[in-house]
Specification:
Layout lengths: L11 E7 L1 H12 L3 E9 L1 H8 L4 E3 L5 H4 L4 E4 L4 H10 L5 E4 L12 E5 L2 E5 L6 H14 L3 H18 L4 H10 L3 H5 L1 H16 L1
Parallel strand pairs: 1-2, 1-4, 2-3, 4-5
Antiparallel strand pairs: 6-7
Helix pairs in contact: 6-9
Bound molecules: ligand SHN and 1,4-dihydronicotinamide adenine dinucleotide.
Pathway: Porphyrin-containing compound metabolism; siroheme biosynthesis; sirohydrochlorin from precorrin-2: step 1/1
GO molecular function: ferrochelatase activity; precorrin-2 dehydrogenase activity
EC number: 1.3.1.76
Length: 204
């Protein structure tokens, strides 16, 4: 398995199977800006609500190959092992397919993810123990708390200024390393000082 983060904004993503498990997979897709379609003869309450809010397209039917031919990413989440396997076997090799009922099928797994603004920490056990992945994610949430959201904004801002500056490569590398010193994690005042030190450089 090869970890990546994927930009799925405005990409066609399809969830096959409208139960609770499919629904849990829909939220992160929508948050990432995907265009989500659900294909399922029945859909759970969560999906009904998303449909009412106009956030997803819904096809109330049993899945057929034509439903997923154009999809960039497919999540197969029916309660039929046979249907799940058939979708995986008939999808194109260039499509991303996640089969939630069998970790040996599909070409990607979903990790347990902690989001703190621009920071994302994902934990995967490659199907060995999804419950452990979830536990580790929750444990990490205590160390990497909400304060990381603002901290990452500071680091991003500093990095943009440093990259644009006329400094040498070595000087830039040193500043980028300096910017992650603990002091800036803990003190907003020190962050302002760091940025203020950079600004005259930018103006040169
Ligand atoms: C292969 C994978 C496929 C995929 O979904 O990509 C997969 C497969 C299966 N999960 C099963 C069961 C459970 N899954 C969870 C929870 C999560 N499962 C997730 C991912 C994955 N699950 C992928 C591997 C990831 C990895 O190993 O790291 C998480 C991390 C992310 C997410 O779902 O988005 C999410 C936590 C998210 C969060 O909270 O944020 C819990 C615990 C709970 O719900 O509290 C249980 C019950 C306990 C248990 O069984 O361990 C079963 C048996 C089903 C059955 O009994 O029929 C299968 C099928 C199989 O094992 O083949
Ligand atoms: N990866 C994970 O995190 C977990 C995976 N699972 C697996 O997920 C599966 C689904 O779980 P739930 O959502 O709770 O089941 P569910 O029974 O609530 O929902 C299944 C949905 O699939 C639809 N469906 C059935 N045949 C279909 C077809 N031919 N075409 C399109 N849709 C079809 C049904 O109408 C229903 O809406 C379980 O069978 C289990 O193996 C279960 C727990 C965790």
């Amino acid at each position: 398995m090869y970890p990546i983060t994927l930009n799925i904004e405005n990409r066609k993503c399809i969830i096959i199977g409208g139960g609770q498990i499919g629904y849990f997979k829909a939220r992160p897709l929508l948050e990432a800006g995907a265009e989500v379609t659900v294909v399922s003869p029945e859909i759970c309450q969560g999906f009904q609500q998303l449909k009412k809010e106009g956030k997803i397209h819904v096809s109330l039917k049993e899945v057929e190959e034509a439903d997923y031919r154009e999809a960039f990413l497919i999540i197969v989440a029916t309660n039929s092992e046979e249907v799940n396997e058939r979708v995986y076997r008939t999808a194109s090799h260039s499509q991303l397919v996640n089969v939630i009922s069998n970790h040996e099928l599909g070409n990607f797994h979903l990790p347990a993810t902690l989001n703190r603004g621009m920071l994302a920490i994902s934990v995967s056990t490659n199907g060995a123990s999804p419950a452990l992945a979830k536990k580790i994610r929750n444990d990490l949430g205590e160390v990497y708390d909400e304060s990381y959201e603002e901290y990452l904004e500071f680091l991003f801002e500093a990095r943009k200024i440093i990259k644009k500056s006329p400094l040498t490569h070595e000087e830039k590398s040193k500043l980028l390393k300096d910017s992650i010193a603990d002091v800036y994690k803990h003190s907003t005042k020190e962050r302002y000082r760091f940025l203020a030190r950079l600004l005259p450089v930018e103006a040169e």
